[in-house]
Amino acid sequence: MRSSAAALARESSLRWKRRAAVVGLIAVALAEVGQAALVEAQAVKSSKVQKACERAIFEGDVRAGEGFEKIFTPGLKFYLEPLRSGWIVRVLAADEPRGPHDYAELATPPYRSVSPLLIGTDWSFRAQDAVGWNPRRFRYAGSRADFRELAGLYDGVMRNDAASSSKAAALVSVQPEGVLQILDARIVPGLADQALMAAPVAAHFAMTPHTVDQSVSPTPLGALQELRFHVELDLLPGMMVTKGLTVEKIVCPVRPTGGTSRASQQLNK
Questions:
Q1: Model-level pTM greater than 0.70?
Q2: How confident is the model at residue 15 (pLDDT cuts 50, 70, 90)?
Q3: Labelling 48: which of 9, 75, 149, 212 has CA 20 to 30 A away?
């Protein structure tokens, strides 16, 4: 009888231990589910807190000697300015007289050198090299305050002044980005060998739709006759895309709150 009672006691104890283990596992599982739900809820809350910015999107086409301009946000316009060699990308104040510099130029160094803003046969680029540098990525000053600050640093940068160059580099790094994608081109190809400066960037000529004009006698650098292009321009917080343009919502980039940069100021301040 004592042996039987002891066996029953041991069996009962084992059942309680098994139940306790099962309950413990369930508690752990519920805790993990609860933690996952909490993390997900926090992520959703965080995504709602993040500011949403806008990206202006548009397309256009030009022929040699023609320009293209589009106001993409109140106060600023994109301008594809015609040159004898092709075109240059500019971002200008839409409501001010034009000065010696523009918003894209100052935010896309190096200055007076090979630049993604230049779409043409400057710097010994052949026409096919100009088309092969595709897409063209650049920045532009997102506010008048930053534009003026970069303009004030320009002379120092050109003199290779270390302090001016450092301040300009820091300020440029937080300016909004833009991209111009060549969708199609018509060119007279150049006969010269590819310049060393063109080789690292002009790698997408074969992948860019284009037509070769064989009715014109070729020259060493050739010529750009027509371009069709797609442009995307990111905006700073609080800036709105002009009505009529395609708008894409993007997460605002993290910007410093102190230091030299005043890029977070609105365009009209």
A1: yes
A2: low
A3: 75
